[in-house]
Each structure stands twice: as C-alpha cells, then as structure tokens.
Design a protein that fits this description.
single chain, eight-stranded mixed β-sheet, 8 strands, alpha/beta, globular, TIM Barrel
Amino acid sequence: MRDPTPSPLYPETQAGRDAWIVAYRPDLDHQRAALSVDRPGAQLVEEEPDSQGRRVRTLTVFLTNRECPWRCLMCDLWKHTTHKTVPDGAIPRQIDVATRSVSGEFGQIKLYNAGSFFDPRAIPTEDHTAIAGRCHRFRSVVVESHPTLIGPKVPVFRDRLDGARLEVAIGLESAESSLLARLNKRMTREDFARAAGYLRENGIGVRVFLLVKPPFVDDAAALDQASRSVQFAFASGADVVSLIPTRPGNGALDRLARAGLFTPPTLTLFEDAVDAAFAFRPPGGRIFADLWDLERFCDDPGSLDARAARMAAMNLGQQVLPRVGAAVASRHRP
C-alpha cells in the first residue's frame, strides 16, 4: 500500500489522523457483511472478584452495532461493526440470544459494543428500557462509553436496572495528555476526570482500560508511564483498572512499527506493569490483566502457560504472586 501521508508519517491534525488511520485499515468489508444485527458478535463466560473479593460469574456479550465515530489509533474493534445504526430492537434480541445460550446463575453481565453504549448511533436510546429489562437477573451491569458521552442519560439507564449496580467502562488508555492526543482519543485527562466524578456522584461504578506500551512509548518509559496512568485512574475514582498489552494488527500500528515508532510490549514488560499496578490499588479497588492472545507477546514460549496461569490467579485473588519463567529476571522491574 502506498503511504497516504509520506511527510510527515503521522499527521498532526485530527482530520489528517482520521484519514491516515482509516487508509491503513485492511479491507474487511467481506467480514462485516457476514455480521448479523440479530446476534452478538461473540460472548464468553468468565469469573472475576467483586469489591469484597467474592468471585462473580460473568457473562460478557460483544454486541454487534454501528462503528464508533472516533478513530483511535490503536483500535481494531471496527472489524466487528456495521456501517449503519442497527434497527430498533436488534440489541435486545442480541442479548436474548446470549442469555438463552448459557445456563446457571450469573452475577454480572458486561455489554461491550466496540464503541459507546450511550452513543445513540450505536445503541438506539429507544432500546434502553428493553435492554435494562433483560438485565434484571444480574446484580451488576457493565457498559462502556467515551467520557464525553457521559451525562444525564447514564443515571436514567441506571434507574431502569431495578436495583442492579451499573458500572461504566472507559478507555482512558493513558493519563499522558500529549499521548492521548496522538492516540486520536478525542478526549483529555480532564474529560476523563469529569466523567469519573459524575459517575461516582451518581453511585455508578467506574472501570478503566489502560494500554501497556502504546505507540510512541519506548521500553525505558513504558513501565513508568503505565504506573502513572494507574495512579491517575484510581485517584480519579476508578473502581477497576484493566491493563491491556497494545496489540498490532489494525494496519495503522503496523505502519508505525515499520517506521520504528511502535513495538508491542514483551510479556515480561506486561507482567512488570501489572505487578507494579498493585502498589497503587486502593481498598476495594481491583486490577485485572487482559490475558487474551498472550502468546503474541511471549518472549519465552516455554513459560507461557505458567505465566498466564499466574496472572489469571492474580486476577482472581487480587494479589501479586511470585514470578515464574523468564519473567523472574525482568530487566524492567524497578
């Protein structure tokens, strides 16, 4: 593919970045054409501890809906979205498909939608009542949203949940202002702090996603950058911080990698960041490591299973466990 912006490599304007990021996307219209608006893109069953340390069986549903209007540099979730707003009633039907396919008791449901739950172009506002009705069997409901969309609609939806606890997940990614701009997040750390404060004032939980070693951050700075972001998230009122290793594969990051502006974190560096985060966890706060696709980052394949099992146990037990494998000799650890 010809570089759409040969000089500079990565544009400095928002409009330029939007065009650059989209230009490097692989052609996946055939994949999008296979999506059904009446079925979720995927779902999974998992366990995670609540604020009291009790394990909660969780149903995570990845809803099929219109692509997010923002063009974040590292995002690949658009691969699983539609070009248009889904019809009224489609999202409740997707939730029905997910809940009918599982059995047993669940304490929590996560409704993730590759964008913002409170974006009416993604999730029709007219469906909020029906969605809430389908969540009454759960004690906790997690949705996700861009911080600039958090406002009066959120407590209205909370009240429709009939007593279930609402938690909103926000992709902060980093607490570094200059990096947020380069990630094309269309938000500032002040936007996040305002949104988190509003949620807390309304009795709504705050979950935060943070990237470990995003683009433009080298190995030497990555651990400190992640730690500062964890501190900022908890200081702003987060209940949960989830750390995610920055994954290539969306086109834009691969182009930056070829230019030497991005390298994914090693599994060792990711473990360092997760371990360090626990030093900033407040009482009742939780820290989770995103364990999907860890083999892509593993710098010692023979130790992958043991290291993944260690972090899975840390997710459940909320305490740092002894290191295993090559990670014992981490050069990144302070």
